[in-house]
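quick one, 144 residues, struct below
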Amino acid sequence: MVRYKLYQDNRKNSTTRGMWYGRAAVMGVTNLETLSERIERNCTAKKSDVQAVLTELVEAMADELKQGNRVKLDGFGSFKIGIRTTGAESPKLFSVSKNVKGLHILFQPEVKRSADGSRVKTFLTGVQVSEYGEYDKPDEQEEP
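---
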């Protein structure tokens, strides 16, 4: 179950200032060891073997991404490096040192076609959404 918390857009110049939105709430963190234990329970590989493979997967993926490759994990999704740049007035004036401001990883989850032909992200199949349990909920009468 994915839970959400409500928040209000309070940005000064926003066209949606005062509107309320739901934001997914993280319920916990699962680490490599926990995943390895879970995988060990569901197959014949030992936890230490699973950890070794997953650790090497991270290193191998980093190497492939650094070479400019997209890394596709079938049934999971694909990863690639994206860059954040500022504009230059002409191609000749564009330079890495001046215009490239940052790098980030882009993840695109695997998509399958459903029976009706619509696209469905495999990780989201069957996910249900509800409001987070107890938290400082905003007052419904509150005005911006």
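The helical segments are 32-42, 47-66, 96-99.
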